[in-house]
TrEMBL record:
Listed GO MF terms: hydrolase activity
Organism phylogeny: Archaea, Promethearchaeati, Promethearchaeota, Promethearchaeia, Promethearchaeales
Signal peptide location: none
Protein name in UniProt: HMP-PP phosphatase
EC number: 3.6.1.-
Keywords: Hydrolase
Gene3D superfamilies: 3.30.1240.10, HAD superfamily/HAD-like (3.40.50.1000)
NCBIfam families found in the cross-reference section: HAD-SF-IIB
SUPFAM superfamilies: HAD-like
Domain of life from the UniProt record: Archaea
Amino acid sequence: MAKKFIITDLDGTLLDTPGKLSKKYIEQLNKWIDQGLAFTIATGRDLKKTMKAINGLTLKYPVILTNGAILAELATETYLKITHIDDNISKHLVQKGQEFQLFPIVFAAFDPKKQQMHFNKGVWGPQKEITFLSSDKVYPLLELQCVSIQYHAKKEQLDPLLKWVKEKYGNQVNIIYIEDVAYSTSGIAGEWFWLEINSHEAGKDKMLKHLLSVINVKIEDVIAIGDNHNDTDMLKIASQGIAVANAVDSVKKIADLIIPSNHEGGVFQYIEEHLDEFI
């Protein structure tokens, strides 16, 4: 019987404290990984933010970043696969966003000549004043390979742009539209959402398939764990899709199993209860 391979989302799923994984769980995971646990991560975070969140965790497998737009090796900070949006589409998206008075808050681009990733970011957070990226931060990167364009605003502001993107480029890009839970739980007025636009080749499910081909693991041996809409396709293709108790209803509906919430260490409880299957 083949050993199971576990892949989990970070925020809202694995992370048990705001923005990071607690020391006790890092130590526990490292112990299990040393004993043979096949484990990795699929997150919406970029490489630097991922490393900050799980500082001290020693992963032996590549990680999926930027909601499946990137595959990387954390230990060496090496990018193994990078997807990008068609040049004409990315330029049109930015121009159309400005017509709706929307400006990116994250813009990721890859320079193929220098083999260098650029993540230009504005400022956001429940306790911070939002600062979007100015044109001089975005337009130079449009000359490179656009990996991800991300907007952060209230739902009523984002919906018109979302509608246009779906109608114009729905089958040529990967669209992620999720509520910012940090804002809603902080009592800030309005429905705040993230609109993320990546290549049509991106997605946690698509990058997972690529990862499995690289490490020679079969999809029937994969257990995927998540909490939000951007995890849905990954959970669907895995042999077992698991949702934490704090997951959104649509994820719980398609999950094969629901485990305790991230704040209760649900992922760790699940692994410990089934350790014989994983090690």
